Amino acid sequence: MNLLYKKSFLPALAVALLAASCAGSGPEKTPEQNTAGNSQPTTLKEAFKDDFYIGAALNAGQVMGRDEKAAELVKEQFNTISPENVLKWGPINPRPGVYNFEPADAYVEFGEKNNMFTVGHTLVWHSQAPDWIFEGANGQPASRDTLLQRMENHIKTIAGRYEGRIDGWDVVNEALEDDGSMRKSKWLTLAGEDFIEKAFQYARVADPEAELYYNDYSLWKPEKRDGAVRLVKGLLDKGIKVDGIGMQGHYGIDYPTIDQIEASIEAFAALGVKVMVTELDIDLLPNPTGRQGADIVHTVEAREGFNPYAEGLPDSVQQKLSKRYADIFALFHKHRDKISRVTFWGVADHHSWLNNWPMPGRTSYPMVFDRNYQPKPAFEAIVEAASK
Ligand code: XIL
């Protein structure tokens, strides 16, 4: 990409964002308007327009008009969106026959109205899946047939409802253990290993035009990378069309290495499928799980020392975050022929799930927009990576 980058655009962007937040939901601004007359990219979607889609995961409030500042920022910066929770099985179908379509409908309308590549997340997952799915009669576990029937019905109902309006679906999420073996989920133990191919088949029928993906975290780990390659190759060999692999991208400040991420981009692209970074964020907070059991993180003693930036982020750490984002985006840009989409898991810092995971009530800084919806230095670093 040969777009030049000027350091002077940040104040212009801040003014544009402020104007947007004051004006409420005005018409979508063009990059030219934002840059106050110069032609430098001021938005992420402009910076990467020749490379890949760039997006963010949206929560229910953002698509239902309860966070207009976030909605404006998303329209300005991104050309693809993912649903943080509203399309998951639990939120959309908590009890048999009970559906909560309103937030999901609003999400899809948001994508459509703003002409965005609209992702569905996710059809089959072990988490945020209500217990009733896996229950049979008299407290027994559901039989394979019952479970597969529920899965087919779910995919038909949800993917079918949004047929032609959702551009790509995370059909199966997180079916692998970190060692690359199949996750010992209820899907696996009750339905058997072919639950994955069934899910892809049902999704293909429900929406023949949508792209269909396998999505997982820690795919930079060599064993898990190999497991994903085996899994997707196995599906492709059986004639089951898989359009892409989503690497979630929940990264730390010092892991994984750029080489580890690169090896996975290359391994997945070699299968002939699209590679996507689907849930990007960079966690700056100490990870409590190594030291303490998850059951005690709620106590004050256990939390001590684990929320170091409650009063603000020191400049030195801000710089580290920028450098980390710059390195990661330099890699994505290098592999722009293989990567079709990069999506942040949230919009601004206060929206991120990392304020509450793996420990509730912390102050996290994983995104590139701050708590005032302003671009952080990492934003600038990312735009710069696009120009190299
Ligand atoms: C997270 C959401 O961000 C949280 O709001 C929710 O409480 C739990 O799920 N991998 C995924 C995402 O595929 O769906 C998860 O999203 C984060 C990890």
Outline the structure in words.
With 388 residues, the chain is α/β, with parallel strands linked by helices. The chain has one domain (43-386): Glycosidases (TIM Barrel), CATH 3.20.20.80. Helix content is 39%, strand content 14%. The protein contains 15 helices and nine strands. The chain has helices at 9-23, 31-34, 44-47, 60-63, 68-77, 89-92, 102-113, 144-161, 186-191, 195-206, 222-237, 258-269, 300-303, 315-334, 377-386; strands at 53-58, 80-83, 117-124, 168-173, 211-216, 244-247, 250-252, 274-283, 339-344. Strands 1-2-3-4-5-6-8-9 form an eight-stranded parallel beta barrel, surrounded by five helices. Helix 8 links the parallel strand 3 and strand 4. Helix 8 (144-161) packs parallel to helix 10 (195-206), helix 11 (222-237) packs parallel to helix 12 and helix 14 (315-334) packs parallel to helix 15. The longest helix has 20 residues, at 315-334. It is globular, with a radius of gyration of 21 Å. The termini are close together. (3S,4R)-3-hydroxy-2-oxopiperidin-4-yl beta-D-xylopyranoside binds at residues 84-85, 173, 248, 279, 353.
Short description:
By secondary structure, the chain is of the alpha/beta class. It is built from 15 helices and nine strands. 44% of the residues are buried.
- Summed over residues and divided by their number, the pLDDT gives a mean of 90
Physical arrangement of strands within the biggest beta sheet: 1-2-3-4-5-6-8-9
Major sheet characteristics: 8 strands, parallel, barrel
Summed up, the domain count is 1
**CATH topological fold name:** TIM Barrel
CATH A-level architecture: Alpha-Beta Barrel
Order of helices and strands: HHHEHHEHHEHEHHEHEEHEHHEH
Could you name the CATH class?
Answer: Alpha Beta
**Spatial extent as radius of gyration:** 21 Å
Derived structural class: alpha/beta
Helix content: 25-40%
Uncertain stretches of 5 or more adjacent residues: 1-38
What small molecules accompany the polymer chains? (3S,4R)-3-hydroxy-2-oxopiperidin-4-yl beta-D-xylopyranoside
Inertia-based shape:
globular
Say how many strands there are. 9
Q: Span between N and C termini?
A: 7 Å
Tally of alpha and pi helices: 15
Taken as a percent bin, the fraction of beta residues is: 5-15%
Look at the structure and name the CATH superfamily.
Glycosidases
